[in-house]
Amino acid sequence: MRKGAGTRAERALLALSVLVVLVHAALTWFGVGGFWRANVLYDLAMGVTALTVAASAWASTPGPHRRVRWWFAAALASQVAGEVLWTFDVANGREPFPSPADVIFLGFYPLAFAGLVVVVVARTRMHRLRRGQVWEGCSQPAR
Asked: What is the pTM of this model?
């Protein structure tokens, strides 16, 4: 994929995400919308955010940064799936506590943790020092 095309898609999804969040905030501020605003619009905002992270992962160059973005996109997708299922349960008059949505919500945490592990491992490999470098750095006189 061309870098410019990925950047345009990311920008479009980001703009859509910001627009949905601003509409949600405005409707909340004015107390308009009820269930539709509180649940469906929120689910849409979360879904667009997950798509934005996935588009960013797809358009980025291979390496640890791409893997981190995919892990976070998967974590957000799990959160969105749980939100949509919970909204569906509430809309159909079912008591959503406990529900299958709770299990899906819990999928967010190990996926996000895996993304954080990839970040930490990539950073430590990038800044790994050889044995002698630390001693040489400590033994040099300050100027």
From this structure: 0.76
